[in-house]
Amino acid sequence: MRLERGLRWSIYTIVAALFATGVAWWVLDEGPSTARLYLIAAHGLAAMAFLVALGAILVGHVREGWRRRLNRASGTLALTIAGLLILTAFGLYYVCEAWHPLFTSSSASPGRSCLPLTSCSDDAHDCGRRPC
């Protein structure tokens, strides 16, 4: 069961944008703040597009695949990783500054960069709303 071509390529493009902007933002950790500002804005926009695409997949592809008992392991893995990425994004945006090391540590960054691998398997603020 394949996704329709337009949706599949949209997802590939969105995941590539998420990966590229996330890695660039991470690499420019000490770089110019203006560049990082635009990168994180682009990353947030791509993340919103990803949520829309995830919703489109859940409505048809996931439900039908689950009903037919197809690719349950890879689908569950992909959805679990997407859910964890959504939770860490929520944590970065809404959790107090004291918790930021849990979400921004170098150990979390490599895990967040593994999303492109899962997308192909199935063919920043504190509580006071001050910038980090």
Detailed description of the structure:
This protein is an all-alpha fold. It has one domain (5-119). It is 73% helix and 0% strand. It has six helices and no strands. Helix 1 runs antiparallel to helix 2 (33-68). The radius of gyration is 16 Å and the shape is elongated. The termini are far apart.
Number of domains: 1
Strand content: under 5%
The helix/strand series, from N terminus to C terminus, equals HHHHHH
Query: What is the structural class?
Result: mainly alpha
Instruction: Specify the overall morphology.
Output: elongated
Roughly how much helix do the residues carry, as a percent range? over 70%
Largest sheet: none
Overall mean pLDDT stands at 79
Give the beta-strand count.
0
- Poorly predicted ranges (pLDDT <50, ≥5 residues)? 117-132
From the alpha-carbon coordinates, what is the Rg to the nearest angstrom?
16 Å
Counting DSSP H or I runs of 4 or more residues, the number of helices is 6
What is the rounded distance between the termini?
A: 44 Å
What would a concise description of this structure say?
The chain is mostly helical.
